[in-house]
From TrEMBL:
GO terms for molecular function: metal ion binding; transferase activity. Transmembrane segments: none annotated. Coiled coil: none annotated. Pathway: Cofactor biosynthesis; thiamine diphosphate biosynthesis. This is Thiamine pyrimidine synthase. It comes from Streptomyces himalayensis subsp. himalayensis. Belongs to the NMT1/THI5 family. Signal peptide: none annotated. It catalyses: N(6)-(pyridoxal phosphate)-L-lysyl-[4-amino-5-hydroxymethyl-2-methylpyrimidine phosphate synthase] + L-histidyl-[4-amino-5-hydroxymethyl-2-methylpyrimidine phosphate synthase] + 2 Fe(3+) + 4 H2O = L-lysyl-[4-amino-5-hydroxymethyl-2-methylpyrimidine phosphate synthase] + (2S)-2-amino-5-hydroxy-4-oxopentanoyl-[4-amino-5-hydroxymethyl-2-methylpyrimidine phosphate synthase] + 4-amino-2-methyl-5-(phosphooxymethyl)pyrimidine + 3-oxopropanoate + 2 Fe(2+) + 2 H(+). One of its GO terms (biological process) is thiamine biosynthetic process. Responsible for the formation of the pyrimidine heterocycle in the thiamine biosynthesis pathway. Catalyzes the formation of hydroxymethylpyrimidine phosphate (HMP-P) from histidine and pyridoxal phosphate (PLP). The protein uses PLP and the active site histidine to form HMP-P, generating an inactive enzyme. The enzyme can only undergo a single turnover, which suggests it is a suicide enzyme. Residues 68-277 form the SsuA/THI5-like domain.
Length: 363
């Protein structure tokens, strides 16, 4: 398995955790918060210098990770001109990675108009004083899963009793929160410290593997291994992911701009869902060129992530929407991980409600 693909999802979590524990949340105070009160240096303008019907200026979107297929809808929106259709002069997609600053920091400091993050990361930042809100979520289901070999499948949490589960050090916090949320008896599970490559699972050293459902399982399938997975989201760990985050003052003062952004994203993601290979090709050959990605693997990931995006609720209410019931479940899940925050402080889905009310054809 190429080194980049073997590491990508796990390194991403290590990066997010580091952003919380070190340079990220430590910054949410003093000079950083002082910058929150100023409107200077905004990343998108409402002036008339930009092309397009509304002249919103340049869109800056901070991605949560490297430019892989995870952001297929944005690549499609950019390449097909959906952003410019909505009044942006151009779109700059800012990649993330191990050396990048946390997404929340880039949005708070106005390096990016919009960021893509996760409720546990953003919620912790808000608790520390960051003036942020989640305005929508691509993944309705969290991508973390337990992977096992098909010949000895682990299909539900209780199947882990008496088994060895490989858990990476960077994922310890998520594992611990999941065990609490699923009301599991941790003493009945042997947690084995592992690195990034899931080779130990294929060799029988461990019985299960903690991973992203879109990543390691597909990497092993392409190498000829048959694997099974179950999502943490389906068994007691409901937490949306790939959430759009913005500053509160952007919501207050630039609602039309944010709604234009959301419309373009909706169009891009609808195209990605209809044709999973489209965004995969753009990721491998254009936006993520040079990262060692292949269209074949990226297409498999695209198909799997579409299952996290398109649910009965989003089919009914529209992409990126989150039901009140799911919001409440998210808040409870965050408490298991030590983030105590209210729904009102974390979510503001009123922009999406307006978008779909104004144009029901987008649903």
């Amino acid at each position: 398995m190429p080194a980049l693909r073997a590491r990508s999802s796990i390194d991403r979590r290590r990066f997010l955790v580091r952003g919380l524990q070190a340079g990220g949340l430590a910054m949410f105070g003093g000079p950083l918060l002082a910058a929150c009160g100023s409107d200077s240096g905004s990343t998108a303008s409402s002036g008339s210098s930009a092309s397009g019907p509304k002249g919103f200026g340049e869109l800056t979107l901070r991605l949560s990770w490297i430019k892989n297929v995870e952001f297929a809808g944005s690549y499609i929106a950019d390449s097909k001109g959906y952003y410019t259709d909505e009044g942006f002069s151009k779109a700059t997609l800012i990649g993330g990675g191990p050396s990048a600053t946390p997404m929340e920091t880039d949005v708070v400091t106005k390096k990016a108009l919009v960021g893509i993050s996760a409720p546990d990361i953003t919620g912790a930042a808000i608790v520390k004083g960051a003036p942020l809100k989640i305005i929508g979520a691509q993944y309705q289901k969290n991508p973390f899963c337990i992977m096992s070999m098909a010949k000895d499948p682990i299909t539900k949490p209780e199947d882990m009793y008496g088994k060895k589960i490989g858990v990476q050090a960077s994922n310890e916090s998520v594992w611990a929160a999941f065990v609490k949320a699923a009301k599991l008896d941790a003493s009945k599970i042997t947690k084995v410290p592992v690195q990034f490559d899931p080779l130990p699972l294929t060799q029988g050293t461990v019985d299960g593997w903690f991973s992203f459902v879109t990543n390691e399982p597909n990497a092993l399938r392409l190498k000829g291994f048959e694997v099974e997975t179950f999502l943490l989201a389906d068994v007691g760990y409901p937490l949306v992911s790939e959430a759009y985050i913005v500053r509160q003052d952007t919501i207050d003062k630039q609602r039309d701009l944010l709604k234009a952004f959301l419309r373009a994203e909706i169009r891009g993601w609808k195209d990605s869902i209809a044709d999973p290979a489209l965004g995969a090709k753009l990721a491998a050959e254009t936006y993520g060129k040079g990262l060692g990605l292949t269209t074949e693997e990226q297409t498999l990931e695209s198909k799997d992530q579409n299952k996290l995006i398109l649910t009965a609720d989003t089919k009914k209410n529209g992409l990126f929407t989150v039901t009140q019931e799911l919001i409440e479940e998210n808040i409870q899940t965050l408490k298991y991980g030590g983030v105590d925050i209210t729904a009102e402080k974390l979510f503001d889905l009123s922009l999406l409600e307006e978008v779909y009310k104004e144009d029901p054809s987008l649903i």
